[in-house]
Amino acid sequence: MKFTKLQATGNDFVLIEADRMRRDWAKLSQTMCDRRFGVGSDGLILLLKSKAADFRMRMFNPDGSEAEVCGNGLRCFARYVVSTGLADTRSSITIETSAGIKTAVPQGRGARFQVDMGQPRFRPEDLPVAVAASRVPILDHRVDVAGQKLALTFVSVGNPHAVCFVKDVGDFQLCDIGPRVGNHELFPRQVNFEIAHVVSRREINARVWERGAGETLSCGTGACAIAVASHLHDYVDSPVDIKLPGGTLSVKWDRKGSVYLTGLAELVFTGEWPDREPSEEK
User: Could you give the count of Cα atoms lying within 13 Å of 142 in the half-sphere of its Cβ?
Assistant: First the structure.
């Protein structure tokens, strides 16, 4: 079974053209994403045919759970279809996801892409989060976690996010606090947790703990959620650079419409996974 490894600001993925394949994708994701016994990645992306868009994308986390959408994964997906000639660098690319149809626009020679991530949502049921709110968006909701008092701002960008503004992202014990927030009883389907420090109205330092993956070098939807939360607090202008351990992503939002995520995506290598199961429908 052929695969391609790609990365976007250090967020790496294994991509398979899987339209006629039948697999236990959750189990395969756990195996292939393992960094010692597999290929190693933050997720498994499937390229499929779509009746509603140019392509369909599914993405599985390293723990086998399926994500609704993935911003960096969308850019890697777009880079793949452009690089293989399945799509043209001169036109936009529509991609069907569980969170709706997203549009990726190649920039330059097709290594950099801008993705329309859609409009952010803020109602408790949109994430979901078990909070009775008379007003939305929900800003600075107080939660006690491991002796720390956190102020969380809730944003859905097709998947759920809780953003916390801190003085220093480097010193924050994300590997300890992240899973405690992500699995908190407030979030019946778990949540992605971001910590962010506003450097200026054009720049934010951040780290992300992703449900199903743990701390990653970058997260596209996380960067979008951070930018939106920062706008809601009137901390930043648009566009704003979100600086993550794996690199910088640019996010644009006019406080009314879609959130636009821009950044590089790169092919790393191709390979062949041992084919231990029948791969095609009879």
Answer: 2
